[in-house]
UniProtKB/TrEMBL annotation:
Chain ranges of the Enoyl reductase (ER) domain: 10-305
SMART domains to which the protein is assigned, alphabetical: PKS_ER
InterPro entries: ADH-like_N, Chloroplast_QOR, ER, GroES-like_sf, NAD(P)-bd_dom_sf
SUPFAM superfamilies: GroES-like, NAD(P)-binding Rossmann-fold domains
Tree of life domain: Bacteria
CDD domains: MDR_like_2
Alphabetical list of Pfam families matching this protein: ADH_N (PF08240), ADH_zinc_N_2 (PF13602)
Name of the molecule in the record: NADPH:quinone reductase-like Zn-dependent oxidoreductase
Native organism: Motilibacter rhizosphaerae
Gene3D superfamilies recorded: Medium-chain alcohol dehydrogenases, catalytic domain (3.90.180.10), NAD(P)-binding Rossmann-like Domain (3.40.50.720)
Molecular-function annotations in GO: oxidoreductase activity
């Protein structure tokens, strides 16, 4: 099968298409023919060698990729041709999703019905991250939740999930993206701001501060000023966790797929309740160009590789 392989640490040029043996599914695993796999920052940061301490099990040569959507080839409990979405937690040293075939535990897949596979290729990692981060934050109906980076994939998913749970969402978004973020369910959209200014702006809207801040950009620990006493602050980076103050719980989300979780998110996607924005799609042969485009930033949506 064709797959992307990282043979040495480096930039977009190390994302090379090679021939590799087809995976053989083990007991409980499902073999999936990948149709689309989105690129995430973790892919190019890992390939550059920046995450060796965090992911010591990932060493060249390896197949990169976390997200994928495709059709079932074979596997217990699944019919051939079923459309599914999934995620490979590559930090565990597993071959990633940028390959024509991938074998993953069936309990970690989500059935998509007839939903679009291209956008679904960017669903899993970001939606699971958003969901688990909101859970860490103790999300509940009636709360005020601040989401930074709401124009991005994790932030956009978090806005949708928090609004659907009955929270009032205050979102921080890029200029020109205000209407899109409102369409995701944000009650208020703030323009880009510093971590220090965020607290002042949020407290101008919500006296006392928000119940929960999900810092998906992240702006950094100083954004804790937007949280009320006894509230929660969740970030995506270890360096983003604030020092203890005012009884606030500050934590970093560590994403690990859980049985059944992706099915709930896949159902929401298939029913139109969870949207994924795609900025560009590239054929597998142009994966290096796709990585260069995605890593340059400034896009409104995911870059997806088509297999």
């Amino acid at each position: 099968m064709r797959a992307v392989q990282i043979s040495s640490w480096g930039g977009p040029e190390v994302f090379e298409v090679v021939e590799r043996p087809e995976p053989e599914p083990r007991e409980g695993e499902v073999l999936v023919r990948v149709a689309a796999a989105a690129l995430n920052p973790v892919e190019w940061f890992t390939a550059a060698g920046y995450l060796q301490e965090l992911a010591p099990a990932v060493v060249p040569p390896y197949v990169p990729g976390w997200d994928f959507a495709g059709t079932v080839v074979r596997g217990e409990g699944y019919a051939e041709g079923e459309r599914v979405v999934g995620m490979v937690r590559q930090f565990d040293g597993l071959d990633g999703s940028l390959a024509e075939l991938v074998a993953v535990p069936g309990e970690l897949l989500g059935r998509l019905g007839d939903a679009d596979l291209v956008a679904a290729g960017g669903l899993a990692l970001n939606a699971v991250t958003a969901r688990q981060a909101l859970e860490l934050g103790g999300l509940a109906a009636g709360q005020t939740v601040v989401v930074t980076g709401a124009s991005g994939a994790v932030g956009g998913a978090a806005v949708q999930l928090a609004a659907a749970a009955g929270a009032t969402v205050v979102a921080v978004a890029s200029t020109g993206d205000e209407e899109h973020v409102r369409s995701l369910g944000a009650a208020t959209v703030l323009g880009r701001t510093s971590a220090e200014e965020l607290g002042e702006r949020v407290r101008g809207l919500v006296p006392g501060g928000a119940d929960l801040v999900l810092d998906a950009v992240p702006l950094g620990p100083a954004a804790v000023g937007a949280v009320c006493d006894g509230g929660r602050f969740v970030t995506v980076l270890d360096s983003g966790v604030p020092a203890p103050e005012r009884g606030i719980l500050g934590v970093k989300v560590d994403v690990r797929p859980r049985p059944g979780e992706l099915q709930e998110l896949a159902t929401a996607y298939a029913e139109g309740r969870l949207r994924v924005r795609v900025a560009a799609a590239y054929p597998l042969e142009e994966v290096a160009a796709a990585v260069e485009k995605a890593s340059a930033g400034g896009l409104r949506g995911k870059v997806v590789v088509l297999l």
